[in-house]
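Supplementary Methods. Inverse-folding protocol.

Structures were first reduced to a discrete structure-token string of length 128. This string, shown here, constituted the complete conditioning input.
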């Protein structure tokens, strides 16, 4: 089997995922994913699609992660892995979609407007 490429995005994080047959090793930016994502919650998010399809020990995942925060990166990686798994086997799309892994979360940070403190917060109004 050749290497499968997929892209996952969330907020400003971008995950380039390369999936190949192997033993279940997940490498993020040349580190093991357990050292890159220190908390159990983030590790769980990353492996969700693999565990759901029961293929966690069949594929090696190599990832280049860039941008965003650690939570956004984990969710971008989940989307990338999901897209790669769908490329391999179209049959698994229904299972992944039912769990909500196929949908790209479109929410982005709203820009700051001029004459305001933040995107929506205004400067305090003073009558006198």
């Amino acid at each position: 089997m050749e290497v499968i490429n997929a892209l996952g995005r969330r907020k400003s994080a971008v995950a380039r995922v390369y999936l190949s047959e192997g033993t279940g090793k997940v490498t993020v930016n040349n580190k093991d994913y357990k050292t890159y994502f220190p908390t159990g919650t983030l590790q769980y998010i990353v492996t969700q699609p693999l565990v759901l399809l029961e293929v966690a020990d069949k594929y090696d995942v190599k990832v280049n992660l860039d941008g965003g925060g650690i939570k956004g990166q984990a969710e971008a990686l989940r989307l990338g892995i999901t897209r790669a798994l769908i490329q391999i086997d179209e049959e698994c799309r229904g299972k992944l979609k039912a769990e909500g892994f196929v949908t790209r979360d479109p929410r982005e940070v709203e820009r700051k407007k001029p004459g305001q403190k933040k995107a929506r917060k205004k400067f305090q109004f003073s009558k006198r």
